[in-house]
Design a protein that fits this description.
Blueprint: E1 6-10, E2 14-15, E3 26-28, E4 34-37, E5 48-49, E6 52-58, E7 61-66, E8 73-77
């Protein structure tokens, strides 16, 4: 995968253990980018406060990897 397809940023959200990341969650990055999740993840056992995130662009899709969550989450960019 070309380097330009991967971005790293701190996520400005707090993800609560009991809530998980729901489909439709708005994710704000320290870079100013805003994404909406297209699927959900519940595989973590503590609150995640401003975790480091990776956005991977693969073809026409983008995926969010959140530090502390093993599942990649499909996202669409809103801005």
């Amino acid at each position: 995968m070309p380097k330009g397809n991967t971005k790293y940023s701190q996520c400005l959200n707090t993800f609560k253990e009991k809530d998980g990341i729901q489909t439709g969650t708005i994710v704000k990055m320290a870079t100013g980018e805003v994404f909406e999740t297209m699927n959900s993840a519940f595989s973590y056992d503590k609150d995640l406060v401003s975790p480091i995130c990776t956005i991977i662009k693969s073809g026409r899709y983008s995926y969010l990897l959140v530090s502390g969550i093993s599942k990649k989450i499909m996202v669409k960019r809103l801005n």
